[in-house]
Design a protein that fits this description.
The complex is a heterodimer of chains A (282) and B (351). With 282 residues, chain A is of the alpha/beta class. Chain A contains eight helices and 14 strands. A six-stranded mixed β-sheet of chain A has the order 6-7-8-3-9-10, sandwiched between helices. Chain B has 351 residues and is an alpha+beta fold. Chain B is built from 15 helices and eight strands. Chain B starts with a helix and ends in a 9-residue tail after the last helix. Classes of the chains: A alpha/beta (282), B alpha+beta (351). At the A-B interface, strand 6 and helix 2 of A face helix 10 and helix 11 of B.
């Protein structure tokens, strides 16, 4: 449960094309991170998967079923919003049980699930408070709890940590990772922070201007970027690029170093700063 | 206390001197207070005056009542006057009856001796007092309780329906995207420019052909859709974050549940404002109920009050007293709901 497939998804708002034909398969239990500079369409893609927006063309499949025209509520997904979107006039308990009440779940079952989620996220003593009386981290937990109680086929998280301070972001990241290990549910996580992406992801989807640049594991992205954009985007400090000329299967650098390459003619050479070492020779 | 005094009397001028702006501010504020508060005070104090005192010139600020005395040989108390006698001395005497330009007076201490006094030679003896009859009589003679009941029914029903329909329209116009939405909004706001008197005749014929003449629903139904209400609520609902509604949608809430359980509670401050408006409008409505209602038992308070203003004789003392009574609910509604006006909680769940 929790396989999600995108088939040639396109989305345009009026005349502006935002997503240009995305093909993607997400496996059961995988934690996939969408990463990219702002305006690359990663949040739009997540909203399309959630069902909050409809794609202009293409198909979305969940567990092999075409859900392109299915409403957001009936896709069996849960979403954690960037702003948490907790209902401010309800207590934490009401926030958690609202979705379950709407499904006409028996009260006993609702109480059990809410208590279980509260125990897992350690928000048991906050259940009677309102969102206004919670700190940022606590609100974050409640927002995640609201997703967990639904027992969804997949979690969609839209920059969930961007409103927290740096220290809390670190702990919450670890908790999210532990949570994923424990629940073994598919998670799609949107962020512009590559540290989050690299530490959390099973696979990372790098997006730029509505297109997928590369899909791979964090280490492969780092070690074998497929194009200049991915090479420059992943890694801090950024990779350095040099223009050079390749001939006879070699790139010769001004210092005398030679690098073997299966290419002839002008090339761009990328060097990560940490791979450079100071040398004694002048 | 000292701090309050210092705050109230501080001046812009250096060392406590009067700057010209201080003078203007004080004049402006005092004038404003008189203009805003004066009529209300005048109304309340006049509502306690008897009909004769209301008609006299120059008017008095405080309500007075004529002193009376029980005189032997007369069943009812007689009004007392200060009479200037021919020899220049003054005496307190009671009036038995008026004959032309003079009055037959008697000394309460000596009931046998009757004196004829020209009207110009006497002054009524009065003390500050309240003519409570103005309030008591209408409750007994005038069908006050029935009119009050009608007014309360019209106000409550119209306000509830106004809140419901206007908030539904406002929700659709603020949170759904559909073709022609802005045109619809513009049309609704444009109806603000059409006053009731313009559509009075067509409205009457509509209500008449539906058979709602002489029915309280004929007063209620045409008033519930208000452009002001829709506009006010829509502007407020625009500030409710879309993410809350999307979260509810992910939470399996139906569109009705989103409206009823998410949007309405969050729009409470705007609803409170509209409640105040609606209560004041419907409570004070005069022209439309006057046209629709012609049976006495259906009158609202405002129409009922109008019966005191006859063609030849206006009973001002009753009108003033009942006006004070009709003002009370409006003031109460304002006191209870005004705290909602300033408190908004919609943004609280977000960050």
């Amino acid at each position: 449960m929790g396989r999600i497939a995108l088939r040639n998804i396109r989305k345009s708002f009026q005349a502006v094309d935002v997503i240009h034909g995305i093909e993607l398969e997400i496996d059961e239990g995988e934690l996939v991170v969408f990463v990219g500079p702002s305006g690359c369409g990663k949040s739009t893609l997540l909203r399309l998967i959630a069902g909050l927006d409809k794609p202009t063309s293409g198909r979305i499949e969940i567990d092999g079923q075409d859900v392109t025209q299915t409403g957001a509520a009936d896709r069996g997904l849960a979403m954690v919003f960037q702003s948490y979107a907790l209902y401010p006039h309800m207590t934490v308990r009401q926030n958690l049980s609202f979705g379950l009440e709407n499904q006409r779940m028996p009260r006993q079952e609702i109480a059990t699930r809410v208590d279980a989620a509260a125990r897992m996220l350690e928000i048991g003593e906050l259940l009677e408070r309102r969102p206004t009386q919670l700190s940022g981290g606590q609100r974050q937990r409640v927002a995640i709890g609201r997703a967990i109680v639904r027992n969804p086929t997949a979690f969609l998280l839209d920059e969930p940590l961007s409103n927290l301070d740096a220290e809390l972001r670190g702990t919450m990241r670890a908790e999210l990772s532990a949570l994923h290990a424990r629940l073994e549910t598919t998670m799609i996580y949107v962020t512009h922070d590559q540290v989050e992406a690299m530490t959390l992801a099973d696979r990372i989807v790098v997006l730029r201007k509505g297109r997928i640049e590369q899909v791979d594991t964090p280490l492969n992205l780092y070690n074998r970027p497929q194009n200049l954009f991915v090479a420059g985007f992943i890694g801090a400090p950024n990779m350095n690029f040099f223009h050079a000329e390749a001939s006879d299967g070699l790139v010769r650098l001004p210092g005398g170093a030679e690098i073997p390459i299966a290419h002839e003619g002008p090339v761009t050479l990328g060097l990560r700063p940490q791979h450079l070492r100071p040398s004694a020779r002048r | 206390m000292k701090a309050v005094g210092r705050f109230l009397f501080r001046k812009r001028g250096h060392g406590g001197a009067w700057h010209w702006t201080d003078v203007v501010t004080w004049i402006w504020l005092i004038l404003g207070t008189i203009i805003m508060f004066g009529p209300a005070l005048w109304l309340v104090s006049s509502s306690f005056k008897g009909p004769a005192q209301l008609a006299e010139f120059p008017p008095t600020l405080l309500p007075y009542v004529q002193e009376v005395a029980n005189v032997e040989g007369h069943d009812t108390p007689l009004p007392l006057y200060m009479v200037t006698m021919e020899d220049g001395s003054t005496r307190v005497m009671a009036e038995i009856r008026r004959i032309g330009t003079s009055a037959q007076m008697v000394d309460p201490a000596d009931p046998q001796e009757r004196v004829s006094v020209p009207l110009v030679d006497r002054q009524p003896l009065r003390e500050v007092g309240l003519a409570l009859n103005n309030y008591v009589d209408p409750f007994l003679a005038f069908d006050f309780m029935r009119y009050l009941g009608n007014s309360v029914f019209v106000t409550v029903a119209a306000t509830l329906l106004t809140l419901l329909t206007n908030s539904m329209a406002a929700y659709a116009l603020s949170k759904y995207r559909f073709r022609g939405r802005d045109a619809v909004m513009l049309l609704i706001v444009a109806t603000l420019m059409v006053p009731l008197s313009v559509i009075l005749v067509p409205l009457y014929s509509v209500v008449s052909s539906v058979g709602l003449l002489n029915s309280l629903w004929g007063v209620i139904l045409p008033t519930i859709a208000t452009p002001t209400g829709v506009f006010l609520l829509r502007q407020y609902m625009l500030t409710i974050p879309d993410e809350l509604i999307e979260a509810a949608r992910m939470d399996h809430a139906s569109e009705w549940q989103i409206y009823w359980r998410i949007v309405l509670p969050l729009a409470a401050p705007a609803l409170a404002v509209l409640t105040i408006f609606s209560v004041v409008w419907r409570w004070n409505d005069f022209l439309w109920p006057l046209i629709v209602l012609s049976r006495r038992e259906l009158y609202t308070l405002q129409i009922g009050l109008n019966t005191y203003a006859g063609e030849l004789n206006v009973q001002w003392h009753y009108i003033l007293a009942m006006t004070v009574v009709t003002m009370i609910p409006v003031v109460l509604v304002f006191i209870f709901l005004q705290r909602f006006i300033t408190t908004g909680i919609a943004g609280a769940g977000i960050k």
